[in-house]
Design brief:
This protein has 16 helices and 14 strands. The chain is of the alpha/beta class. One of its GO terms (molecular function) is 6-phospho-beta-glucosidase activity.
């Protein structure tokens, strides 16, 4: 990254921090009146992926299975200790999510659960005490199980109203504490892990594509209603959407490869095009027509989407993707990432098969800003790795420092390119349960948590080498990489 005397590339007030999700950290899965959520039905092991894609046969946890979300890292009871560590690093922001089922245990209760509301009051108060800005995701991969059983989750239009009630409840309660909001985490994940993204369960013979895009419409309408409510209840707040981002490269300059790469990107852009531009793009309408999909919409939907677009674009970036139209090349795929990708011969991969592409981060940020011309917020980026504690009790995670250093440098280059970026909250600043695999050994944090894949361990928190490195990055506003 270029250096300029006594001047950081990163703007003054840049929101450095980290990002967490309730279902991956809180634990206490039925404590304080909380209801069962979709992630509470996802065990470790072979069944996890089948459930993630909507092949689930029971809405009750099996006592013979291990469910990592039930205890997770017990942030519910450790949040003060953990926030103190984040404050020691100098965090300016912490992205968290509210569990819908902590506020409305069934998702559609007549009155909210006061114990759940109070927990997040206490959490936000603790953050603000340490001068850490809460950045709050309203729906991060958890739907109250009752809504799945009774309504089919986001298959049903009725969830729009339930979500709007939830949104208005939390906006009203936390209007003096939270100024940055996001509606649905990685909303495009609905297409790839439909149970995780939207609580969708499929029966034999159903048209899954039809169901997914109808559910997507319901989430997009719910998001627009939430934006409207947020602007009315908290006029000085900012509310954004959130995309699992990553540029798709064509494997060759064959125009067929280039067009296919564009189509793969559009699968994701579709959601943000609607949330940011306020209407269904032409390519989506053609896709629906070509695939005989009929999306049921109500008369006021078009106006609602047009008039209540988001203030900023939140996005995660872990890896770029590569695609081809050559069947032989398609056989050579990377493992690990939910988004399918052929192996890029120019790039290395992580232990979990995720492509490592710092330059792709800059490309992705430029692409999003060119497309939407709205501020961006990098709300997830990081490296999952199997960290080892040495004989002296030290965790030397130089590989993580190297990954983050390269990515932050490229983010700085994107800012120099003219991209407006609000902040950077790296994923999992403390070790958390992996959303995709349910593992603990896939660690992202600057802080090690003593817990293994089977749920064993003391939950003791230990600083890694990256802890002091990130502290220095924040203190220097990105200059000391």
């Amino acid at each position: 990254m270029k250096r300029r005397l006594n001047m950081s590339i990163f703007p003054e007030g840049f929101l450095w921090g980290g990002a967490l999700a309730a279902n991956q950290v809180e634990g206490a899965y039925l404590e304080g009146g909380k209801g069962l959520t979709t992630v509470d039905l996802m065990p470790t092991g072979e069944k996890r992926w089948q459930i993630a894609i909507g092949k689930i046969d029971s809405f009750t946890p099996d006592e013979n299975e291990f469910y990592p979300s039930h205890k997770a890292i017990d942030f519910y009871h450790h949040y003060k200790e953990d926030i103190a560590l984040f404050a020691e690093m100098g965090f300016k922001a912490l992205r968290v999510s509210i569990s819908w089922a902590r506020i409305f245990p069934n998702g559609n209760d007549e009155t909210p659960n006061e114990a759940g509301l109070q927990f997040y009051d206490d959490l936000f108060d603790e953050l603000l005490k340490h001068k850490i800005e809460p950045v709050v995701t309203m729906a991060h991969f958890d739907v109250p199980v009752h809504l799945v059983e009774a309504y089919g989750s986001w298959k049903s239009r009725e969830l729009v109203g339930f979500f709007e009630t939830y949104a208005k409840t939390i906006f009203t309660r936390y209007k003096d504490k939270v100024k940055y909001w996001m509606t649905f985490n990685e909303i495009n994940m609905l297409l790839h892990m439909p149970f995780v993204g939207a609580g969708l369960v499929f029966k034999e013979g159903e048209n899954e594509t039809q169901i997914k895009y109808q559910a997507a419409h319901h989430q997009l309408i719910a998001s627009a209603r939430a934006v409207k409510a947020c602007h009315e209840i908290i006029p000085d707040a900012k509310i954004g959407c959130m995309l699992a981002a990553g540029q798709t490269y064509p494997y060759t300059c064959n125009p067929d490869d280039i067009y296919k790469a564009m189509e793969k990107d559009r699968e994701s852009f579709f959601f943000i095009d609607v949330q940011s531009r306020g209407e269904y793009p032409g390519y989506a309408k053609r896709f629906f027509k070509d695939n005989n999909l009929t999306i049921e919409m109500e008369d006021e939907d078009a106006e609602l989407l047009k008039n209540h677009t988001v203030d900023y674009i939140g996005f995660s970036y872990y890896a770029s993707r590569t695609t081809s139209t050559d069947p032989e090349i398609l056989k050579d795929k990377t493992s690990g990432n939910v988004f399918g990708s052929v192996t890029n011969p120019y790039l290395e991969t992580s232990e979990w098969g995720w492509t490592i592409d710092p330059k792709g981060f800059r490309i992705t940020a430029n692409q999003l800003y060119d497309r939407y011309q709205k501020p961006l917020f990098v709300v997830e980026n990081g490296l999952g790795a199997n960290d080892e504690i040495n004989a002296e009790g030290i965790i030397n995670d130089d590989y993580r420092i190297d990954y983050l250093k390269q990515h932050i440098a490229e983010m700085g280059q994107a800012i120099e390119d003219g991209v407006d970026i609000i902040g950077y909250t790296s994923w999992g600043p403390i070790d958390i349960v992996s959303a995709s695999t349910g593992e603990m050994k896939k660690r992202y944090g600057y802080i090690y948590v003593d817990r293994d894949n089977g749920g064993n361990g003391t939950l003791k928190r230990t600083k890694k080498k990256s802890f002091d490195w990130y502290k220095s990055v924040i203190a220097s506003n990105g200059e000391a990489l």
